[in-house]
Write a structure and sequence with these properties.
The protein has four helices and no strands. The chain has about 160 residues and is mostly helical. It has a domain of about 100 residues. The longest helix has 26 residues. It is a multi-pass membrane protein.
Amino acid sequence: MEDMGGMNMTTSPSSAASGGAGGGGVMMHMTFFWGGNTEILFNGWPGYDNLGMYIFALVIVFVIAFCVEGLSHYKFIKEEKSNNVVAGLLQSIIYGFRVGLGYLVMLAVMSFNGGVFIVAIGGHTLGFMVFGSRIFKKSTLPTLGKSFDSIPTNC
């Protein structure tokens, strides 16, 4: 085999999936699986054989998904008393924060853990129910020209 600058070209698929030729890494799942032995967002977190930390990680993912919906539907800026430049900067900061949190939820779901997937959907659903649906609205009449501080993520 041709020399590839120090690369070992004889790596088996199983060793490549577990971190390379030297091994020692954790296998990354490419299909959904169930169980608490997983890594979510950070290397080694929530850890293995630690049910309490796994449940804590699920709660964190749920809360982040809930907050994404809150930031999508809540109106932080009162239009009649706002300076356009300040309001625009605040809207941009809120939007960036919301998008960042949304990407964190997406990356957590990419762990392919079934529990993480379910709590992410649950967080988004409950967040929409609280902040975006008519359940907790004062008026049942549709508001024309209603604007949000960031663009809602409605389908």
